[in-house]
Amino acid sequence: MEEKNLNEKESLELISQMIRNSRHKLEDGNGMPFLVWGYTTFFISLLVYYFIHKTGDYHYHWLWFLIPVIGSIGMYITKKDGAKHACNYVDRIIGNIWTVIGIAAFLISLSAFCVRLPILSFMILLMGMGTALTGLVIKFKPVIITGFIGMACSVVPFVINGNEQIIVFGVIYLIMMVIPGHILNYQSRRRHV
Fold first, then answer.
1. Residue 19 C-beta-side C-alpha neighbours within 13 Å
2. Which position has the higher pLDDT, 124 or 31?
């Protein structure tokens, strides 16, 4: 296969096409990553709050580690027909962003058991960054906006006392992850009509 040198216009069109393809793949996936992780985090937040509120036993914070377990299972289940799509450069960028964010979140979570950290604020900030970066890469405004809203909301747990922080954390995830997931779902249905 021979290589073809692209001019500036052709290069920009190729990059634009990759971005459109990645966005359409997210839309065709019905925004499932956002929905799976957003709803999982929201419901685990409610579960942690409920048990700590009812029992006063802070060991229920270990339930937070259900998020990656349930989220991973949810992602496995929701993959369309197990089909693999060709992964372009933009897809790899998005995958790498979330891999780095996920590793950072896991390390911060482990560190919180040794050192007192404002973990809920850190998690909101990290996931807001991941959401905003994903939106910027695919050039999709609702994802960008909710990501930045999430980042701005990372200060909210500092002004709320007690276990109510956990409820607010879950609600922020609904705004930051679930709303863009449903918007992507809507875009997919609208495009395929």
1. 13
2. 124
Average pLDDT, the chain: 84
Residue 11 lies in a domain: no
CA gyration radius, the chain: 19
Where are the alpha helices (H) located in 1-88, listed in sequence order? 8-28, 32-55, 66-78
CB atoms within 10 A of CB 71: 19
Instruction: Say which amino acid occupies 77.
Output: I
How many domains is the chain partitioned into structurally?
1
Q: Which helix (H) or strand (E) holds 121?
A: helix 119-138
Residue tagged 């956002």 (tokens): 34
| Domain-located, residue 15 | no
Q: What is the pLDDT of residue 193?
A: 65
Answer whether residue 193 is part of any domain. no
* Chain segment 87-136, per-residue pLDDT in tens: 667 778 888 999 999 999 989 888 887 888 788 999 999 999 999 998 89
Distance, in Å, from the CA atom of 154 to the CA atom of 5, rounded to the nearest integer, reads 46
Residue 139: which domain range?
A: 31-78+88-182
